[in-house]
Amino acid sequence: xxxxxxxxxxxxxxxxxxxxxDSTEAAMVRCANVRTxxxxxxxxxxxxxxxPPPQHPKLTPMTANxxxxxNTRAQNWIKFVKKQNPACEFRLExxxxxxxxxxxxxxxxxxxxxxxxxxxxxxxxxxxxxxTTKRWEISRFGS
Length: 143
What we know:
CATH architecture of the largest domain: Roll
Strand order of the largest sheet: 2-4-5
Number of helices: 3
Number of domains: 2
CATH class of the largest domain: Alpha Beta
CATH topology of the largest domain: Nuclear Transport Factor 2, Chain: A
Largest sheet: 3 strands, antiparallel
Radius of gyration: 36 Å
Order of helices and strands: HHHEEEEE
């Protein structure tokens, strides 16, 4: 003789329904799980495929000219060159910096009347990004 189990006794609590019995409720739970998984996968993919932020700004021609203007060695060289040929001046053609290099080397920076390959007045400069001060600096000036 088996006795009937009343709600509140050992067995199922009152109002309990197993999740798997109702097909629409189970479908909603599966849909929510799939949606959550999709958004997590999408977020991870976007984070992995996006480009990292640049470590430092590119060296602009304006910044490079300012650095040359305030560099004593560069100013002494251009004064010497201008005494020989007053048409000479600094002319910078910066290379491509899409990879954000830590240093940029520029050759043939003195131009005399459009000719920037004159051996007598030739000079080169190397700019380096200082990570401590977060600014570009001239690391080497050669004439």
